[in-house]
Design brief:
Elements: H1 4-24, E1 40-41, E2 44-45, E3 65-67, E4 75-78, E5 83-88, E6 96-102, E7 106-107, E8 118-122, E9 133-134, E10 138-143, E11 147-154, E12 164-173, E13 177-179, E14 185-187, H2 190-193, E15 207-211, E16 218-225, H3 232-240, E17 244-249, E18 265-271, H4 292-298, E19 304-308, E20 315-319, E21 323-324, E22 336-337, H5 345-348, E23 353-357, E24 360-364, E25 369-371, E26 379-381, E27 388-391, E28 407-410
Parallel strand pairs: 27-28
Antiparallel strand pairs: 1-2, 3-4, 4-5, 5-6, 6-18, 7-17, 8-16, 9-18, 10-15, 10-17, 11-12, 11-16, 13-14, 19-20, 21-22, 23-24, 25-26
The structure holds 2-acetamido-2-deoxy-beta-D-glucopyranose (5 copies).
Organism: Panicum virgatum
Keywords: Disulfide bond, EGF-like domain, Signal
Membrane topology: Single-pass membrane protein
Length: 422
């Protein structure tokens, strides 16, 4: 049994820890959505202009569905429910949604090739009809032997415009042929039947990848198996190997730990902008500021900008430099000054005394020292008798010599020892 004194000590310690915990509890986080709206679905934060539930919780057209009917954790779904949203970025210069979709777009294990050895799969319905585009952050990834695949898209303006973009990316995947000991050709089926060994960029070991050439609303993926010129047995073997075509976030295949035909959810990135309930903006434009009445209607935070989306039509908001928050919200949730002094010296580049200012920061050497506060060890004390100040390391500029000081000595071994008369 515990002695009474040690039990008391334990209680005291516990009380102390509880006190420290409550003292270090941070102030309530600023709102990210409209008042009275639920902004969390499972583990995903849902900042305005996105939302679910009551119509005042989202900007028209940017409603999502928080699906709690599946038993597991709630899932944030977009459009027809085939796409799950995992991350929403509303601030910054490239507002995007990170989403996942189950399986491959072309899957030879579930769909037999049509005439001419080809497959065609629609891709995009489910998000393009809600105004989302595939962003530059995606690439086409193809697995198979002697397969060429392309991703087709509508022009900007969507399916109702007559502006057809056509192919926005494509690549060809081959399986290198090898000789066996008997001098016969064979293909290494491990290329497509195992976890990809390389990064698929050379297109010769059972997979290929190619980035998107423009952000666009995709319509379909087409793949065709080419005649390889091999003898019948090899050709037959090649044609039996699985073909899988994906559109995935750049770099996704570097993370792949399963065979291509066993892949589950595949991440990709959508670009969005606000189009509904606002006057139409320019369709194709350089990055330019919105008309004033659009800015007032959409970018409710002071210290925010409004941009015409590229490609248009549509608009996005962004906090001014030095501010962070939700540019679509007025008041506490909106763009607030970033206190740059809260960051580490490495991050904010200030090794002296950091003074936060509205929209920026200021860095100086502490009182009684001189030098360059922008480098580590850059501020040094002045020797009152010699009038010299000694740096612990050499500075790569002479800003140390600003001040009413007679001379300046660098003590770093490999540096010259300049004496500067001011
Ligand atoms: C927000 O919605 C999720 C999913 O519907 C639910 O699990 C959670 O309890 C809700 N939170 C609040 C505060 O209503
Ligand atoms: C928004 O809500 C409407 C009506 O419930 C629905 O048809 C539509 O798919 C939703 N949009 C998105 C992007 O989820
Ligand atoms: C391909 O289809 C098969 C059969 O339906 C399925 O088991 C497999 O998971 C699918 N693979 C991908 C990557 O979609
Ligand atoms: C597309 O073309 C058709 C026929 O030329 C025309 O009637 C229609 O207005 C066009 N649509 C758009 C959005 O330009
Ligand atoms: C790759 O894996 C890392 C670590 O799990 C993750 O942070 C990153 O988002 C993944 N990248 C892609 C493109 O899936």
């Amino acid at each position: 049994m515990m002695a009474p004194t040690s039990a008391a000590a334990v209680l005291f310690l516990a009380a102390l820890m509880a006190l420290q915990l409550s003292a270090s509890a941070s102030p309530p986080a600023p709102p990210i959505g409209q008042p009275g709206c639920n902004t969390t679905c499972g583990s995903v934060s849902v900042p305005y202009p996105f939302g679910f539930g009551h119509t005042h919780c989202y900007w028209p057209g940017l409603n999502l569905t928080c699906d709690t009917t599946h038993g597991g954790p709630p899932r944030l779904l977009l459009g027809d429910g085939t796409i799950r949203v995992t991350d929403i970025w509303v601030s910054g210069s490239e507002p995007t949604l990170r989403v996942v979709r189950e399986g491959s777009l072309v899957n030879s294990s579930s769909t037999a090739a049509g005439g001419g050895g080809g497959w065609s799969a629609s891709f995009g319905r489910g998000f393009t009809e809600h105004g989302y585009l595939l962003s530059f952050d995606n690439e086409l990834v193809v697995f198979g032997c002697n397969v060429v695949a392309t991703l087709l898209a509508d022009g900007i303006g969507g399916p109702n415009s007559n502006n057809t973009a056509g192919r926005i990316t494509g690549c060809a995947s081959q399986c290198a042929k090898k000789f066996n000991s008997g001098g016969e050709f064979f293909i290494d089926t491990g290329d497509v039947e195992g976890v990809p060994s390389g990064d698929c960029s050379d297109g010769s070991s059972g997979c290929c990848r190619y980035p998107l050439t423009m952000p666009a609303p995709p319509t379909q993926v087409q793949a065709v198996q080419l005649y390889s010129g091999s003898d019948d047995a090899v050709e037959a073997a090649e044609n039996q190997l699985p073909v899988n075509v994906f559109v995935a976030e750049n770099g996704w295949i570097g993370n792949m730990s399963t065979r291509a035909d066993e892949v589950g959810e595949v991440p990709f990135v959508l670009k969005w902008s606000v189009t509904r309930d606002l006057p139409p903006g320019p369709e194709l434009d350089d990055r330019s500021r919105c008309a004033d009445h659009v800015r007032r209607a959409l970018c409710k935070s002071i210290n925010s900008f409004c941009w015409n989306a590229i490609p248009g039509p549509g608009y996005t908001c962004q906090c001014e430099v030095g501010y962070d928050g939700n540019p679509y919200l007025a008041g506490a949730g909106g763009c607030k000054d970033i206190n740059e002094c809260d960051f580490s010296s490495e991050e904010n580049g200030c090794f002296g005394e950091c003074i936060n200012t509205i929209g920026s920061m200021y860095c100086r050497c502490p009182h009684g020292t001189y030098g360059n506060p922008g480098v580590k060890g850059g501020c040094a004390k002045v020797n009152p008798t010699t009038g010299q100040y000694i740096h612990t390391r050499a500075l790569d500029d002479n800003s140390c010599c600003v001040g009413v000081v007679i001379s300046c000595t660098f003590s770093a071994d490999d540096a010259p020892l300049p004496t500067v008369e001011l």
